[in-house]
Structure formats: C-alpha cells, structure tokens
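Amino acid chain
________________
===
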Amino acid sequence: MPWLRENYWLPALAAGWSSILVSSASAGGLVGASSDDHLWFVAPSSGANDALMLYHHALEMDGPHYSRGRPLQELPEAMAAWANRLWLIFAPKISADQPDRETFTVEVQRHPAIGVYSFDPPDRLSVVASLEGLGNLVGFVGMPQGPVALRVPTQRAGAGVRARAGSIAAEPVLAEPVLEQLRGGRWERLELPEDLPIGGRYRLAVGSAQGNLLLLLVASPGDRSRTVLHQRHAQEAWTPVEVPVDLWSVAAVTRSEAQVALVLQGARPGRVEISYLRPGSLVSLGEFAAPSGRWGLFGLRDGVRLVEQSTYGGLRLRRIDPITGTLSSSEAMTSQSLLPLRTLHMPLLFVVALTVLLLVLIFKPASQAASPTLPATMAVLGLGPRLLALAIDLAVGGVATILLLRCTPAELLRLPMWTPDIADAAPSLWLIGITMMHCTLGEIVAARSVGKALLGARVVAAHGVRPALGSILVRNAIKIIVLLIPVLAVIALLNHHLQGLGDLMARTLVVHHVSPKN
C-alpha cells in the first residue's frame, strides 16, 4: 500500500509497529481516538520545536475548532475513548527490567456559560494502572466500564529458540493472547474465544450505542479470505460468525453511532475505502483519495471525520456523510473560538482600573497623611531600587510558577491586559498570585518582601512606624490590580513619595535607612 508506507513510516519507527494495528486512526499516521461526541488526536504542533500536542475536538463546537490539550514527550502507542474520557497507553521502555506500558487518562469538560472546553485536570494527565509490557498491543478500545486492551504473543514467542541466560532471547514472552479491562484501578482479565490462532491478524471494536458489545475480528494466518467476527454482550459467551473481509487489508477501525466502520486500502493504489461491518457482510460507504500528509479517521455520532495535517503543520477537518459517504469541503481547524467572551476580561480590567482610580480620589488620605514626615534615619526608596526590588520579588514567583506548571519563561509574559485568550494568561496569573502571597507574608512578618530585604528597604506607615495588618492587606490587594494592569503603575510617578495605588490606599511608604545628617 504505497500511501501507507510513505506517510506512516516515520511515526511507526517512533511508536513501534504495534501502533499501526491498534489506533483507530493510525492508517494515515495521525494517532487518535473518538467517542460519540468527542475526538482526540496527537500531532506535532505548528511551533518551531514541533513538539507533540494532544488536541481535542467536540461535536458541539461551533465549527472546525479544537481545544489544545497537553504537550506530550512521545507518541502514544494506543488511545481509546468513551464519552468525555480519554485513555492513553505508551510503549514499554526497552531499558526497563520489567517493562510496563504506562497508562494515563484525562477528561474534557464544557463550561456551561461560555461553551469552551477544557481538560480536567488542566495541567497534566492522570496516572492509572500500567498495562503489562509483554506481547504486542493489537487492540485498545473504550467502554463505559473502562478501556479494553488486547495483547498477543510476538513472533519470538512461537519460535521455540533456546538461549543462554541474560540474552534477549531468554527474556520472558507472552505465551497466549490476553484480553484485559481496566476496572477499579487495576487491569482484569476477560475471557477470550477458544482456539485463537497464534500469529493471526486481530481487530478489536465496540458496537451498540450503550457500548456493551465487544467485537473481536480474527483472521486465519493461512487463509486471507477467512475472517471470524466474535461478538460478546457483557458477561455472555462469545458468538462467532464469518464475515467476507480480508482483515489484512483493514488499515483501521472506527465507530460511528453504534456502527463499526472499517478503513480499507482501496482496490486502486492511493485510495481509501470505508465500509460498515455487518454480521456476515460488509456495506460499502464510500471511497476517496488518501491525503498527502498525516491523516486520521474518527467516528462521531453524526458521521466520520477526516482530520488532515499538512506538511506545514496546518490542521484541516472534513466530514464523511454516514449515508451517502460523500466528503464535505475541507475546513481549516482553529482554536475554539468564542472571541467576544474570551476577550471580556480586557474591558473588565479597564473598568477595574477606573474604579480603583475613583476610589483613590474619593478616599484620598488627608494632607498631613499624604505628606508624612519621616524620621531622619529614613528616606523614600528611589525609583530604580524600587523597580529592582519588584523584579526580584517577581523572579521568586516566576521560578515557583515554572516549577509548578512546567511552563517556559516566555509564557510568564502573557499578561491578561494584552492577551486575547485569557487561558493563555494562566502562567502569568499564577506568577502574580504566588508573588503576592510571598510578598504579603513577608510584609506581615517583617514589613519587607524578599526584594526589599535584599535592598535594605521596608514598608512603613506614616511617620515611619510599623504598618498595621489591615494596611498591609489593603496595600497588596491593590498591588495585584496594578500587576494585572501595569499602566496603573505610573501613579507612583505622580507624587513626591513614589506612592503607588496600594500605598495611597493603605497610607504606606517604601523607605530605606540612611545616616542622619550632622
């Protein structure tokens, strides 16, 4: 199959040949999974570093949009989904003594007010029980009770080679096919049909709208025309029936509205055919030319989606009609767009800024408080040292944010004031929050933050006395607003004592000690 060899060769080297067999969308190199209303796929991001990114698309999104998920260090070996939950399995590490397949999960949640989808948890994948690393993973599907995985022996398992201890050939191998389901935090074995052939071709799928029908397609190793479809409802026994399909020509399996669709290599090179699987028969849906870049087919409730990624990194989406099999026009995929709602924080910040300015004018301190008389040993800290102290305090918060979120320093500069998407400003919001926490704590305990302490400065009330707790809390609460709206910092340049909004409202000053004049 020329287009398969051309487009999948490099991803197969990265993830192992088993990923060709297991992913519902592996035929075109785009690994992913889908449920009735959601689809996920992994693709290189369009950034300069080409890092792998987990993307999500939902049926309820108004258009060909996606919500960007988490960056991944490697390509998953397999992915499975049910409802709004996704599971990812990664290939076992070759260097491990007893290699396991690390398994993770994540959900997506839709905000009821603005319709934006987000990942839960938002900053990581949740770890679940690892799947045993022996054998080839040839099937991985999602079900309501948990994902189901099918592992089969490798070719070395049936070779019968005897080797000396310590060699690769002497390592343990999987002796027979194993079907397992993740339940209650651990993998439990499920019964398989009897007399499964070793070395045959396998496909795993889920049928029915409730997801309680497990399907196992098994091809005879010696007869390409003979494929048996095993069906199993819940705890019932397996029921076999032969189907007229060459399972070796099936590139992927997906599911659309309780119907299992087979993605087959077309009769002509470079063509892709989609057929519905019926007990004892196949119903052809349509045929189309294979895209030139990476691509994947994902079944949703209203039909199959074709996701394409060009060689330049652009993502496009097409719908395949579930009745006629016709392809819709190709649309460029973009980040989920509710721009008016997403940018609502920007006018809100301006309103907050105006409100703070009005409060300063209304509750401006009395003249004697606004022009305090400091002791001879104190002087107002200059603008340069004060900015340096603030930079040190922000650096402490920045290091803590980078360690917690594992973000880059550049992401800390995306302030809400000029970031169209408030979600992109999350690292800077964490930076501001952590900075104000340690500054407030430092000023409560010692009337100085880390930056002020390093520069020999401190916060004082009028006449140089230690500020009250309420003044410190007011000062730092207003300072949060100034960090969110940096233009408010110019207020400090408009008065003789370099008092910012926080200092004016709390009636405090930032001073340093000086030697008294003789």
